[in-house]
Amino acid sequence: MRQIGIFRHNLFKLSEPFIAQQAERLQRYRPLYLGRLRYGAAPNEAESLALEDLAPQMRLLPAVWHMLSASPHPYLYRLEGRRPDLLHAHFGVEGVYALPLAAQLGVPLVTTFHGFDATLSPLGLLANPAWIRYAMGRGRLAQQGGLFLAASSFLREKLLALNFPPERVRVHYIGVDTSAIAPRTPAQEEPLILHVARLEEVKGTDGLIRAFAQIAPQHPFARLVIIGDGKLRKKLHRLAAETGFADRIDFLGARPHVEVLGWMRRAAMLVLPSIKTHSGREEGLGMVMLEAAATGVPGIGARVGGIPEGIAEGETGFLVPERDADSLAIAMGTLLANPPLRHRMGMAARNRVEHLFDIRRQTAALEDIYDELLISREASGAAARQAAR
């Protein structure tokens, strides 16, 4: 069995279960997780090598040094002579940092783009010190990276606009585990409006709170449940209080993935009212929306970024204009007032996810991509050796 290095600076974050979920579905490749810091537990029996282990008493020091230097040597030291057959970096930032390591190992590099890494403006990238090297090295990644996977068709178009080579940019939906996520029954549903997102500007949570305040008087049993954390939490708490409905808006913070799935089973709908920020940042797709759909929950999303690829308008949910609290309130109120419509859309959402976003089918396609890349590289190497004789 071949080994693949899964490269992500911050390993096993609660907000990024999709990375490990994809890697753990591999059948012909064994994942080895490579990163700077661990933010959660690795999957059972999975192997991970983190730079924080180089100095346990000063765990941030190796991570900061690598951020500044981009040197592959700490990872080469941790690998102890081992050589994965291929590296797969998640996010373009990681792709830039993984490029020197792939070159030292002599292996191909696959980079998956998830959202901000393809949409944020250069000034937006330069505003974050951790992304400066990416802003300066993205062109080199486009030239030297082996293959680029876009998490949506929308992101592929963004990458092409950034001069990534069309022949090496493919759309690949990561997918969700439809065998592990069973559709819920109507009896499990409660009048809950669920929002699962980092509390950042791009997620449009403030507009959702304002929309909920519009429909709350007409739906006295409805509650808004917000799962996630971020720098806007205090501001959003104040906004909830200003609406006069703070007692019906629950901020649960970041929760384990299994708990999030439990809330989905209870929800009447999942709402993702993302926006395009002034810095250009947009939603790549919205994995949480696909998980809700697998549960049989209809979705409401903004018509922005890759969200329209996850919601079939009028069939599995509703799409509304971004930054439009009035339209969002109408869509939410429509679903709350019409149980048969909710259940019909939820069933359609489940069927659509099974056909388009099943993680086992998508991961099998990913392994074919890995095989193709390795076979192509081996053929090129053989041709080069033949020419040198």
From TrEMBL:
Start and end residues of each Glycosyl transferase family domain: 186-352
Presence of the UniProt keyword Hydrolase in the record: no
Residue span, Glycosyltransferase subfamily 4-like N-terminal domain: 73-179
Matching InterPro entries: Glyco_trans_1 (IPR001296), Glyco_trans_4-like_N (IPR028098), Glycosyltransferase_grp1 (IPR050194)
Single GO molecular function: glycosyltransferase activity
Alphabetized UniProt keyword annotations: Transferase
Membrane-crossing segments per the record: none
Tagged with keyword Transferase: yes
Protein name: Glycosyl transferase
Record lineage: Bacteria, Pseudomonadati, Pseudomonadota, Alphaproteobacteria, Acetobacterales
